[in-house]
Design brief:
about 80 residues; 2 strands; Helix Hairpins
Length: about 80
């Protein structure tokens, strides 16, 4: 997978592959190649989303300690 690939570009390429494969007029060898690329792009996008979620669910408290954001919200609500 290209190190410089951005999430948005990967998602766009994945959508294009899905569209081509759904049309059904792709030769078998190309369809298999596209499917394999789509699987890699899907895994890349999933990993990017998981990393973003992890980053967004963490905060740093006043002492510089990393704290789960959800726990902070639960504490404030209780």
């Amino acid at each position: 997978m290209d190190e410089n690939l951005k999430f948005e570009d990967a998602l766009k390429e994945l959508e294009e592959i899905v569209s081509k494969l759904e049309q059904g007029d792709v030769p078998l060898e190309e369809a298999l190649t596209q499917f394999q690329r789509g699987v890699k792009l899907s895994a890349f996008c999933r990993k990017q989303l998981q990393e973003a979620e992890t980053t967004l669910t963490k905060m740093v408290d006043e002492n510089g300690n990393e704290v789960r954001f959800e726990n902070e919200l639960e504490t404030e609500q209780n």
